[in-house]
Amino acid sequence: MTKEEKNALVDELAAVLEHTPNFYVLDMGGMDSAQTSAFRRKLYENRLSVRMVKNTLMEKALAKRGVDTESLKGALKQPSSFIFVGENANQPAKLLKDHLKGGAELPKLKGAFIEHSAFVGEDQLDTLASLKSKQELLGELIGRLQSPMSNLVGALQSGGGTLHGLLKALEAREKAA
User: Fold this and answer.
1) Residue 112 or 171, more confident
2) Which neighbouring-strand residues pair with 83?
3) 66 secondary structure, DSSP code
4) CA dist 95 to 18, 67, 86, 131, 165, Å?
5) Angle at 16 between CA 10 and CA 17, to 5 degrees
6) Exposed/middle/buried for 61, CB within 10 Å: 0-12, 13-18, 19+?
7) Per-residue pLDDT at 53
8) Sheet holding 108-114, edge to edge
9) Residues in a beta bridge with 120
10) How far apart are the C-alpha atoms of 27 and 154, rounded to whole Å?
11) Where are the beta strands (DSSP E) in the chain?
């Protein structure tokens, strides 16, 4: 690969990172073609793809985007494959976990970079799978914001009925007296 081709690839990766800043780093070494195809098919069915990139080129693309690669040093060793992810950052972790649950030992998670945070090591898979998407977090936030308001409205409505009944009783008592 010539220097111009490498520079073009770094520019292309930097552009990809601009639109999909979250990514997973996998070790797919040792997988045969059938295993690789099955894993790629599973990703493709979920609108994801895996791409093999030299670690040094990825580091240059990350540096071009202003990402500190120091936290990812442990993951960017040996041949690496990358899954670039949009907003639903936990989807690849769930797919990988499901794939490994079926008895497969590969691919192995080397790390991930999600929302400006690095997750390095295989032991981070459960953490990554349990991350909530932006939509889930917004839904939770809206629900929590609505809860006190609905409680207040409910209390006012029930209290209004009680207050109205009390006023009616006092009015009836005055008329009787």
Assistant:
1) 112
2) 24, 50
3) T
4) 24, 26, 15, 13, 59
5) 90
6) buried
7) 94
8) 50-53, 80-85, 22-27, 108-114, 117-120
9) 111
10) 55
11) 22-27, 50-53, 80-85, 108-114, 117-120
Among candidate residues 153, 1, 22, the one with its CA nearest the CA of residue 90: 22
159 versus 150: which is more confidently predicted?
A: 150
Q: Which of 48, 29, 141 is nearest to 89 (CA)?
A: 48
Structure tokens at 117: 């945070």
Please say whether the beta carbons of 39 and 108 come within 8 A.
no
* Predicted TM-score of the model (pTM): 0.77
69-78: burial string, b at 16+ Cβ within 10 Å, e else: beebeebbee
Nearest 5°: CA angle at 95, between 13 and 26?
Answer: 45
Amino acid at 28: M
Rounded-to-integer distance, Cα 47 and Cα 39, Å: 13
CA pair distance 176, 174, nearest whole angstrom: 5
115: tokens are 């929302």
Give me 50's structure tokens.
Answer: 């895996």
CB 111 within 8 A of CB 118: yes
